[in-house]
Amino acid sequence: LEENLEVNRRTTAENDFVVLKKDVDCVFLTKEELESKVDVLDVELILESYALQELTQFNNQMCDTSVVLKMDNTRDLDMDLILKNVEAWYQNIAHTSKQEAEAFYHSKIAEIQNNRGKFNEELKNNQHEIAELNRVVQRLQTDSENAKKQVASLQSAICDSEQRGDIALKDARTKHVELQTAYQQSKDKLACLLRDYQELLNTKLALDIEIATYKALLEGEETRIYISFYWETSMVTFPESAGRYDF
């Protein structure tokens, strides 16, 4: 019964260890996914910074273009009207391009900022989850180590129980052999005693018969002697009585 309990404990501990291992694997997978998300957020932040730099550079280029056009306006040419038209055309294009670029970059910046807030929140949540998962991993690792120790302890206990069981079984077998030997010896002694008892009974019976025979012989001899003595006594007494009658 004790060995069965040890085996059941060992099986339960092994099953718990397998479950803990699965949980740890899931935690590590979740941790890797969160780390991947963090890497993506870092890349997006880098892209945001790069976009801001590009927008700043574009604004600077627009300012430089306006300056060049103004410098060109200072030229003393005969085609002032043409140059003014060209300047207005270029300014219109530059203004339109600048507005479109600013609108595009502002929308992208707003989107990035919105996403940045969301990503920052997700990052905080992910960091919190990572910290929580790290604590869970540490706890599971501790539980796993404890389970390993329990399994090792149970294995040691099972080995000890098996060794004790083997020793007890050997002792029981030895005692069984000793008892069988003692039983056989007692059986042999009893058989010898029965034979001796039977021989004694036979001897007693023979002696009883012999004694009865001797007793019968003695009684017959006593009877014979008694009768012989009686006749002899009678013979002696009878003549005396006859002589007495003669007188």
Automatic annotation (TrEMBL):
Coiled coil: 109-203
A GO MF label: structural constituent of skin epidermis
The organism's place on the tree of life at top rank: Eukaryota
Entry keyword annotation includes Coiled coil: yes
InterPro entries membership: IF_conserved, IF_rod_dom, Keratin_II
Keyword Coiled coil attached: yes
Alphabetized SMART domains for the sequence: Filament (SM01391)
Keywords per UniProt: Coiled coil, Intermediate filament
Xref: Pfam families: Filament
GO CC annotation terms, alphabetical: extracellular space; keratin filament
Ranges of residues in domain IF rod: 1-225
Single GO BP term: keratinization
Protein name (record): IF rod domain-containing protein
PANTHER family the UniProt entry points to: GATA-TYPE DOMAIN-CONTAINING PROTEIN, KERATIN 90
Similarity field: Belongs to the intermediate filament family.
